[in-house]
Amino acid sequence: xxxxxxxxxxxxxxxxxxxxxxxxxxxxxxxxxxxxxxxxxxxxxxxxxxxxxxxxxxxxxxxxxxxxxxxxxxxxxxxxxxxxxxxxxxxxxxxxxxxxxxxxxxxxxxxxxxxxxxxxxxxxxxxxxxxxxxxxxxxxxxxxxxxxxxxxxxxxxxxxxxxxxxxxxxxxxxxxxxxxxxxxxxxxxxxxxxxxxxxxxxxxxxxxxxxxxxxxxxxxxxxxxxxxxxxxxxxxxxxx
Amino acid sequence: xxxxxxxxxxxxxxxxxxxxxxxxxxxxxxxxxxxxxxxxxxxxxxxxxxxxxxxxxxxxxxxxxxxxxxxxxxxxxxxxxxxxxxxxxxxxxxxxxxxxxxxxxxxxxxxxxxxxxxxxxxxxxxxxxxxxxxxxxxxxxxxxxxxxxxxxxxxxxxxxxxxxxxxxxxxxxxxxxxxxxxxxxxxxxx
Lengths: 240, 190
What we know:
The complex is a heterodimer.
Chain A: H1 2-8, E1 43-44, H2 49-52, E2 81-90, E3 100-105, E4 130-134, E5 140-146, E6 151-153, E7 159-161, E8 164-169, E9 178-183, H3 194-197, H4 202-206, E10 211-212, E11 223-226, E12 229-231
Parallel strand pairs in A: 2-11, 2-12
Antiparallel strand pairs in A: 2-5, 3-4, 3-8, 6-7, 8-9, 10-11
Chain B: H1 17-20, E1 39-47, E2 57-63, E3 86-90, E4 96-102, E5 107-108, E6 114-115, E7 118-125, E8 132-138, E9 162-165, E10 172-178, E11 188-189
Parallel strand pairs in B: 1-10, 8-9
Antiparallel strand pairs in B: 1-4, 2-3, 2-7, 5-6, 7-8, 9-10
């Protein structure tokens, strides 16, 4: 019994985030951060079995059109059809296979299919704006969707969000859980968006921007964008 | 870490998270009636710095089964039952959400320590750029006294990590998450 307990307590801690690579908790220009984040310092937690494990099984089954947001309704959604694909890797550069990705986004007019979105832009009956998929054995994923529009919000006067797709990824551990936003290259709104600007390091910010990719662009059909996602990885992994 | 592969920055889930995460894919029943263990009905509330309910948050839970086993390949003992251990729910207009589960067992801690039964919690919301991590322990559990993580928390703040029994309701537990302000919940840098 004690042997088992000892075996189970061999923990491979995960890398901590490099300075400047993640947004701070409180970022004043994003006005809802101060009231929704702790004012006291966080307590540093050495990694235990509780942090380095996470939900890798038991997701709801994925259906055939879950990764194609243009085929979830009777007709085709309006807008610019795009293919978003990439890889999920850990910070050791290893692919993260069979992990769940969930996305949600506004339609081409910049409106979410959501009751709280009151932006006076049209809803599209053929666009729900949500998808999910699993990465393959090499960490690859692919979505077909339409390019979301920019939309206004109430953070400050004349505030507009750059076009983006929300990405939620699990990875192997509860602490590798990541929810981010994928942006599009060359968006003129980057300079004015406190959510994008909240990430201190410029190189880190650019990791949220997808790249136009002619190789995955399908002739006469859809533009391709590549977006690789990197999750926290372990300092050393078993079986090495 | 290979510096070519720095983790992608986190961004807020924003106000429309339900569309992709909870409208169709909530998991409020972490453990159904068939899962062995002491039944736990857990009601959480999320409150902001002013004590106002946060009505657009999402809580995710990760927990071990009644024997303290995580359903994960890195846990050498797989759970003996169909228990996943993952929960997810959006908060309602009162900032509340509820889960049905079983009380987890003790889990190995650093060295030869043992961690008291606890649920691992991540909180996402508009205004939260990077998810917050906390833990839910069970008030009155004698194992809390020797828990190595609680030992790192200043004594006067430990009660922010304790679910309390709902008076008069067997198996019903309450846990408030105060994001900021008076009696702010303890959050962990994981």
